[in-house]
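dude i think i finally got it to work??
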Amino acid sequence: MKIKSPRPPACLSDKSKGMWKAITREYELECEALETLRVALENLDLADSARELLRNEGLVINGKKHPASDACKLHDGMFLRSMRALGLDIIAPGSGTVAGRRQ
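look at this
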C-alpha cells in the first residue's frame, strides 16, 4: 500500500513546496519532524527573500550594511540547523540504509 505524503503548507514558496514534496516522498516523517521541516523551509524562503533584497538594493544603504545581510545569515543558519536536526542523510549503523527513508 502506498503511503500518501502530507501536502506542503500553503505559506511556502513554490521552491520550498517542491522540496517538501521531494522530502516527504523519500522519507516517512513523524508529526514533529514535519513541523521541523516546515520551520526549515520557511527559513529558507526568508533567506531567499533577504538575498533578493540584497540583489535589488545592494549590500550598503545610506552608508551602512543592509539589514537584509544579517537576515540572510540568520535564516540560512536556521534552515541548516533545522535540516541537520531532521537527520535525513544519516545512515543507520550497520544497515547501509538511510534512516527514515521509505522502502
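The helical segments are 14-26, 31-57, 67-86.
im so relieved honestly
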